Amino acid sequence: MINSMRQWEWDLTPLGVAWGEGAGAIQVALSAAVLLLAWGLSHFFSRGMGVDSRRRRVLVGRHHWDGVLIPLISVAGMWLLRMLLKRVQDATPFLDLVQQFLLAWLLVSVISRAMVLQSAPSPWRRALSRWAVRLTWVAWLLWALGGLPIVRAELGGVSWTVGEHTWTLLTVVEGGITTSVVLILALWVSSLVESYLLRDVAGGDLSLRKMLANAVRALLVFVGLVLALGAVGINLTALSVLGGALGVGIGFGLQKLAANYVSGFVILGERSVRIGDIVKVDGFEGQVTDIRGRYTVLRAPTGIESIVPNEMLITQRVENLSLADTKVWLSTTVGVAYDSDVDVVVRLLEEAARTQARVLQDPGPHAALQAFGPDALEFTLGFWIADPSNGRLGVLSGVNRAVLAALREHHIEIPYPQRVVHLQGAERVTASPKQGPL
Predict the structure, then answer these.
(1) 339 CB-near residues (< 8 Å, 6+ apart)
(2) Among residues of the chain, what percentage have pLDDT more than 70?
(3) Cα angle vertex 116, ends 205, 124, to 5°?
(4) Inter-axis angle of helices 123-144 and 93-114, to 10 degrees?
(5) Is the omega angle on the peptide bond into residue 388 within 30 degrees of 0, that is, cis?
(6) What's the DSSP call for residue 275?
């Protein structure tokens, strides 16, 4: 470390070169002009964007300088300016320094603004984003002060041998940074693709696009992992043994997990169960709110959510109440006295059901005399609704209340159960004064 510090000289650092040779009024003025131009173009392009729109928050930010647009325009303008000045001037150290600063600014803006694209970023993503921003500025500061080559040399001097391969601390650090950046970019790009595919989509297309989003995410993560391992220096052919062991593990211990993932893609592909459907699986009935790679989420009208493995939706019987048609038939039963007019009761029941807004008029409600009960004539009133996702208890309660009001208005009795009890051989028990009450 001491030898490396002896090799460090201020005049040889990028910042020292720019300071020693003098920036010149022209380079300073041109740099300021590029920044002002970027600021003006940012204000111009921000017109017409919503105040709280996601596009404005990413490109412009809250204060213009914290968006992506200003550093992006500045980098492009500075690159064009350097290309023009190098035709008349060999060295532009100040512009080179400003260009590297703008690149670091652009990278920081992209990292921080990418979190805006996440609908609900997790805490670990926020922490990772903050650390990435800090490391970016530290790396630029080390480069500007000439300390980056020294740090690389010191990290490269720490080495160890594992088998036939020699590792250095520099390789591990660069590999970790490369792997993290590639995987984060893969996850962010997949999130962008998923948000674009699922935008303003409903019904059967939603499940198909969900399958495409899951496939794109798996593909990007796999490609990113392969590229990251190659950048670290790991020979991918050496992973053949690991691949064989993984295949054996899937065949024995992970077969359920693999079956769930495969079943998830099959469900999304054939669209037998779609997001928004009302299904009943293993005694649980609810609406499909999400289909993941391993499981499907069902939400009951009571608010209870059930996580169902995708394999169950393939191997077990599933009742889909809205596969081909969203209309659902409901019924309620009512009993009236035997001396009631059957035709009048049927008419009153059907009219009571039609008064409810959620009850369909075509096909309309239908009432029928179902059975002769021991105490009453039993009628069944059936009707159709088109929105089972809003629950069935509310519409059933509304129909029952309307039926009760109609029967009371026309003085039609709903009889109580009557039972005749005969007591045989009953003896009257009297209490003895000596013994007291029983």
Answers:
(1) none
(2) 71
(3) 100
(4) 180
(5) no
(6) T
